[in-house]
Amino acid sequence: MSTEVRVPTLGESVSEATVATWFKKPGDPVAADEMLCELETDKVTVEVPSPVAGTMGEIVAQEGDTVGVDALLAMIGASDGAATGETPAAKPAATSAPKAAKAEAVDVMVPALGESVSEATVASWFKQPGEAVAVDEMLCELETDKVSVEVPSPAAGVLGEILAAEGATVQAGGKLAVISGAAAGATPTPAQDAAPASEAGTVDRDVEDAPSAKKLMAEKGLSRDQVSGTGRDGRVMKEDVQKAGAAPAPQAAPAPTAPAQPAQTPRAPSPADDAAREERVRMTKLRQTIARRLKEAQNTAAMLTTYNEADMGGIMELRNEYKDMFEKKHGVKMGFMSFFVKACCHALNEVPEVNAEIDGTDVVYKNYVHMGVAVGTPNGLVVPVLRDAHKMGFAEIEKTIAEMGRRARDGKLSMADMQGGSFTISNGGVYGSLMSSPILNPPQSGILGMHKIQERPMVVKGQIVARPMMYLALSYDHRIVDGKGAVTFLVRVKEALEDPRRLLMDL
Question: Is this structure's pTM higher than 0.85?
Answer without folding.
Answer: no
